[in-house]
């Protein structure tokens, strides 16, 4: 059986033009009001709220300190549509976002019940160009309102922030979390976290990291590896976290399988 085609960001913009009647714009307004009502001190960073209408290829709302953050007038961004957003997207980052990350998001939505889509939180990071030509590291976190039949995004609402002072590397993060309400408290369960590297050198394991992978494959604990390599156990733990991140593996068992498959050990 032929595999289902992954829908990229550009595919979505090419295929979707008119909002279906069964998507209630009031739902978008309600989400926007909810987002605007969140106290700033509860947000991870200072930023702004955006609402994108994919059916019209443009933003329909940009609030908060957008101009201070980017230098662009929100009215110009709304007027120029998503082609403008793509134009200021760092080209290597956009290639990964378009061909790999957004496709994972649309595939995930297609594989899950449409009525649950609003409970999923999607997080991205990427580089975008300010009006002065400088690059910003953008943190974006939000949800999608989808078509009841195709399950494809028709609206996206997200919090965006410039995290350049905190993030100096070029790696991109993509994660999916599910929101649950228990006892009046909102909790999130991580379902997926992947890292991508526009600059391949950043994803390569160092000699020391490859050595640690080999020791892990031998069945040694972090404490035992520390003794063998004459380094602290904490250093081994930190190396292991970086190795899992670089290889997009969730645990040591996955890492060892990945290492054998890729010829790392």
From TrEMBL:
Molecular function as annotated in GO: DNA binding
Query: What SMART domains does UniProt report for this protein, alphabetically?
Result: HTH_LUXR
Question: Which terms are listed as keywords in the entry?
Answer: DNA-binding, Transcription, Transcription regulation
Annotated HTH luxR-type domain ranges read: 198-263
Q: Which domain of life is it from?
A: Bacteria
For this protein, the parts annotated as crossing the membrane are none
Q: What biological-process terms (Gene Ontology) are attached?
A: regulation of DNA-templated transcription
| Database matches in InterPro entries | PAS-like_dom_sf, Sig_transdc_resp-reg_C-effctor, Tscrpt_reg_LuxR_C, WH-like_DNA-bd_sf
Indicate what this protein is called per its UniProt record. HTH luxR-type domain-containing protein
